[in-house]
Each structure stands twice: as structure tokens, then as C-alpha cells.
Design a protein that fits this description.
The complex is a heterodimer. In chain A, about 40% of the residues lie in helices and about 15% in strands. By secondary structure, chain A is α/β, with parallel strands linked by helices. In chain A, strand 1, helix 2 (about 55-70) and strand 2 form a beta-alpha-beta unit. The chains are: A alpha/beta, B alpha/beta. Chains A and B meet through helix 5 of A and helix 7 of B. The structure holds zinc ion.
Chain lengths: ~300, ~450
Amino acid sequence: MRMFKDLLGLEGLSPDEIRHILQTAKPMKDVLLRPVKKLPTLRGKAVYTLFYEASTRTKTSFEMAAKVLGADAVNIGVSQSSVNKGESLLDTAKTLQAMQTDLIIIRHSSSGAAGFLARHLEAGVINAGDGQHEHPTQALLDIFTMREKLGDLNGKKVIIVGDVLHSRVARSNVWGLTKLGAEVVLVGPPTLLPPEMSALGVKLSYDLDRELPGADVVMALRLQLERQQAGLFPSLREYSRSYGLDRARLRATGKDTLILHPGPMNRGVEIASDLADGPQGMVEEQVTNGVAVRMAVIYLLMGGTTNVVA
Amino acid sequence: MWWLKNVYAVDPAGFSGRRDILIRGGKIEANAEGLSPEEVAERAGREPVETLNGEGKYLFPGLIDAHTHLREPGQEAKEDIASGAAAAVKGGFTSVVTMANTEPPVDSRGLVEFVRAQGVRAGLARVYPLGTVTKGMRGQELVEMLDLKEGGAVGFSDDGHNIQNSEVMRLALEYAKLTGLPIVSHSEDENLARGGAMHRGKAAARLGLKGIPSSAETIMVARDLMLAAETGGKLHLAHISCRESVQLIREAKERGLDVSAEVNPHHLLFTDRDVDLFNTSLKVNPPLRSEEDQEALLVGLLDGTLDMLATDHAPHVWEEKARPFSEAPFGIIGLETALAAVWQQLVVPGKLSPERLAEAWSLAPARRFGLPGGTLRPGSPADLVLFDPEWRERITPDNLASKAQNTPFLGQELRGFPTMVWVGGETVLRGRRLYPAGEGVRRE
Ligand SMILES: [Zn+2]
């Protein structure tokens, strides 16, 4: 097993490395389910969150993961205003280097921002979403959730539907899932699924209903509503009719298909409430598993052995 | 007087072969197939003769770069005319055409004269300014083209921006006929290109970077060709990057349009597959395209559809490029590395002849922009480059004359460099060291 300083994406990881993280997340989840959720593992250490895009969910999940491991989670307040004042990511990296930080968790609107920080820092870096590039912990928690319910993903059919073009979640999931042998189909309207997305090496389709039969998992991507104003699709109504998930449509799979969504959901647009809140909906599982997976990643990057839980 | 003995002379306006060249009084005194010491002495008269053994070396007419951003006035932290002219000479360029997108833009005669004067003060390469097409580069009102020409402008360009208003572009092509100078077009549809960081294709899809489609260029190339056809104007298309553009230009030339075009070395040497999220020196506009585009560009250069090579030398401060890819500015420097890189990757493998290289990088821009140079004929100004194909040099921040370091060759060793450069008969580079002629030397 290679030793990593950072987790920047799943594209560069081997199947064994992905499995190793997922294995490590299992005992972490057990800890989470205990009444006293606290490990002394990383006591005295601090992880820093640096979120250039607002995301309460992801940030809270990382903070919780750090705290359960006994580390302090320090939020480095960045707002668009400090960016506008001209402080570059390079300046920030220099400051963080001077602070002797151990681990930085960054979310940034530019693809490559996490890798950029990692190159300029001795500290470890976790990519919590960089532009449209990768969001590795999201994909890891999705895959963890799928494996919990389905076991080995080899040969399982996973449909990812929505705004694939702009989605770092979709990219990371494609890399992770295909490395574990799953069959992935990307579905969306042509404007959100241009032909060059074939670079990801999986099937592309405009027709959700045709792809549904046999699907073990359907993952709806969050639709940024401003894409409609940008002209990428004509209306939410038409989008929802073609690509929105609901219980009736999902019968076509012929299975108890798992429904995943990275959240927050636009209910009634990409996913109907009856489906999201029903037994097939994994959204709450995903939240719990997110903390477990992030615990595993923080733990492994901070030099932990596989013998996690004392 | 200089006696260059037994050098392999490449004259795009004449013949190539082993020659003896004499330089005297700022001009090429003789270009002959072997001179005797008696003949040389006779030509020299009382002047002392410096003799140079040119065995194994090439002699080119001084290269002329039709597309450089020397950033002065206004952005001297990136580059200035003196540092840019030094970089030019180190790379074998005895003349550079400067783009007008400075701060303020070169949209008045006074600014044209300033740029020229700074070039003369630097005393290295000859500096020929382009003026803008429109006042303030706002794409609306035309500049005083006649006055700018009298001040020394050799063409007009709003490069850095496209003139989106087709009527303004049409008027520019019409009015510039009064000057006989070309309008240089930066062909880019801003709506199609907006927010893009690299070529729109599979590499961009994988990296999660917004792409700039080829159509952003080709639509404007097609438009400008149609306007040139309609007006009979003189059009030069800068930095052609995709195969569809090459085809459009080829057809336009077959129809007899007064159009020329350039290709940048980086588009011939790199593709979008070389782009990663961190090497921002490969973030250029127009972007590095696909391998098919690259092949079409080389074919276009070889068959003359693309008349000339030009670096689009675009320096930036290091910190500006030390950003995530999508936030870094576009641009690559090329003056000091382009000849070596093209030589190594295209000439040595036999894809490009030394003759076509010299033609595309000296004679073609000289003719298009009305500049002296581009030939080794006796009587021509002695703007010359002695090129040693074996000279190796590592590209480091310390040995770059440019203020900028945004080159993908940083840290690499390149092979094939100029070891002597003359401008107007004066030695400005000798053994890779610069000899600026300094203020007061008149080069008109
Ligand atoms: Zn340009």
C-alpha cells in the first residue's frame, strides 16, 4: 500500500487502495453507532477546514469526523471577500505552511485547487470538492453505501443521472465505481452530457427510461438551478419529466434499486419525495456513512495503521 | 568587417548551401561559395577583419517574430521592451512586432513612437509596434490609422480581444486600405469561449475544466475571411489553432484573398493531452488543441496556408501563473525557447526543413508587415543569426533574459541555439552573451 499525504481524487487510486479506505471506514461506522462517540486516536492534533464554497453539510461531516477521532477541527474562515481582496490560494498556502498545520480539508470552485494546495504544502490535503474535477470523499461514501447494501459491486449496474458535465461527484464516482468493476451509465440531456464525456470511459445515454431496466443503483445529481438560466435546458418541468426520479419510473428497474443523492435535494425536480424518503432512498445512510468514510480518510492520512479501534 | 567562413547559409529568398558571408557597414557585403583571403582583404579595405569558422553552423536571416507581447507601457512587472528585446536576441530574433494591448493600449501616434523609441534605447532587436484597431481597444471607433502609420506602426490589432462587432471589423478592413497595412485578427467568439480554460474535448471533460470549442475560433476566422473578401482588405489571422481554420484559409487563398496567417510553435509542439491541472504555462489562448488539429497545422505550415511562425510571447508574473489552472491568465513565453524547441522537435526529425523554418520566421513576416530582412542577399541589412544545432542549454529562471518564467521548458535542457546574432551589422549576441548597442545607436 502506498503512503499518501493527500486525498485529491479517485482517478489516481488503485482498486486496492479504494478498498482499503472502505475497509477502514467499517470500524469507524461502528464507533459512530456507539452511545459514546469518541476515540482518543488523534488527540492533540488539528484538522483545518478551508471552504471557499459554502457547504454546511460537507463541512459539518468533516468536522464531526475529526472530532470523533479526538482531533480539533478548526475552521479557517474564508469568504469571497478575502478572495476579492486579492489573497490568492498561494498566499493562503504560505500562511498555512507557516502555521505548521497537519491536515487541510479544502473545497474550492476551481478544478485542481486541492492539488495546487497539496503541491505547496507539507501538510496533507483532503479534496472536499474542487471545481468540476473531483469530490473523492463523496464518491467513497456513495460506494461504501452501495457495498453495504449490495456487497461486491463487480458487475452491478449504476446509473448516474443529471448534470454530469458540471459534476465532480459524477467524475469521482465513475473512477471509483469502474475500478471496483461496476457498470456505470451516465444519463442526462445532451447539453449536460456532451460527447466528450466519453473520456470517462463509460456509456453515455440521453434516455433514462431505456437505461433503467436492471439498474442496481440510480444516483440523481443535484441540479444547479442556475443552469436553466444559462440556457442549458429549457425548464425544470421538462427536465423533471425526462430525468426526474419517482417511484413509478423506478419500477422499470425490476429490482429494489437503491436511490442515492449527494444532497441537498431539489425535491420534485431531480427526485420525488416519495422515493427519497421511501425504503429505497439512501440519503440518510449516506450522511452517516459520510462521517465514517471521512473518519477513515483523516485517520489514514494522519498516519494511522489499519488497527483503528482499540 | 566579419568573414563567416564555410557556414551553411539558409536564404529563403535565394539559395541554401555552404557559403562565405561578409558583413560590412551594416549590410551583407558578399554571399559567395568560398572566398579567398585576397578577395576578403580587398573588400575590407582598411577595416580589420574578424574571421569566424562556420563549420557545422547554420546562418539564417535574423528571425522576425510577428506576435509578441512586451507589456510596455504599463505592465513592466511582466516584461518590458528592453527585457523582451534581450529575450528576442537570445532566441535568434532580430526583429519583433509588438502587440498593442498594453496599458494604456497603443492607440495613438505618441504611444507608437514611444514603443519604437524604447526599442532603439534597448539597442538589441528591432521593435516594430502594432497599433490598436480601435480606440482604447473597446471595439467601437477606429484609431487614426494614417497617423499611427506615420509614427511607425506596421499594422493594427486589438489582439487579446476579438472585435465582436462585425461592422467595426468591416470598417477596419476598409479603412486600413489607406495605409496598406494589415489588420491582425485575434479570432475568438467571446460567447463560445467565455469561461473556458482549455480546448473543449475529452481532456477537458476528464479534468473538469470548461472547454473552449474550436468553433470559437473558426466562426471568427470565417467571418473575417468573408469581410476581407467583401472589402478587399488586408487581413492577417493570428495564432491559428484548429484544422477547420486551416481549411478555411486554404480555400480563401485559392480564391485570391489578401490573407495571411500565423501558427504558434506551442500549437505545433503540444496538444490538449499535455495539459494537466498544474502546468499553467500550457494555459494559452487559443488553447492547445487535439492531435488532429496539430497535424493539420503542420500541413498548413508546410504548404504555405499558414504563412509564418510567431511565438505569441506572452509573459506573466510568476505569482499570476501560480494559481489553479482555471484562474491563471493565458499565455506562454517563447522568444528564448521557440527556435530551439521547433528545431529539436520538428527540424531534427525531418518534419520541417531549415529552409521552410527560415522562410516562415523571417521572409514571410518581413513581406507581410513591410519590414527589412528575410534574406541573405548582398546589400541587405546584416540582421543575421548564427545557429549552432549542437549547443545545449538548460532553461532556468536565472538564464532567461525575459522577466517571466511561464514556459513549459523550465528546468529542461534544449538543444540548438543561436551563438551569434547581428542586427544591422552590430554584434548583439556573442557566445550566448548579450551586447546591447545602447542608446544613441540609430536603427531605422
Ligand atoms: Zn491573440
